[in-house]
Amino acid sequence: MPSLLKEKGGTAENFIKVCTDEESIDISIKETKTPRIVGSGEFWCLDPLYIAAEGVIIISLGGSSSLANALSLLVASYYVFNIKYPLKCSNVYIFCEATLLGNEQEAKKRVAVNKFISALG
Length: 121
What we know:
Layout: E1 16-19, H1 25-30, E2 36-42, E3 45-53, E4 56-61, H2 67-80, H3 90-101, H4 111-120
Parallel strand pairs: 1-2
Antiparallel strand pairs: 2-3, 3-4
């Protein structure tokens, strides 16, 4: 998604980390600085599934939680902690905010986000 939204240097790991069998989810959580989703398993079936920040789990979601729900909570965590979205993935967060939470105010100011939303519709 970062490349589709014209992010400069942003990768999916800026907002979601899917750990493989060879990776430790605990290490991935400890390496997390800004809020992001951390999970293990297949991309559409992550269990366990967490939102982590500053090396700790801030929200523990069950395996039955949808990725859309996790993304909504991730965006909300930035509001709760009153921090800005990471510059390398700000368009992704603004896209999620517009599509999942219905807050399109900031998305209207971003050409790449507007074009992407228009292409989907």
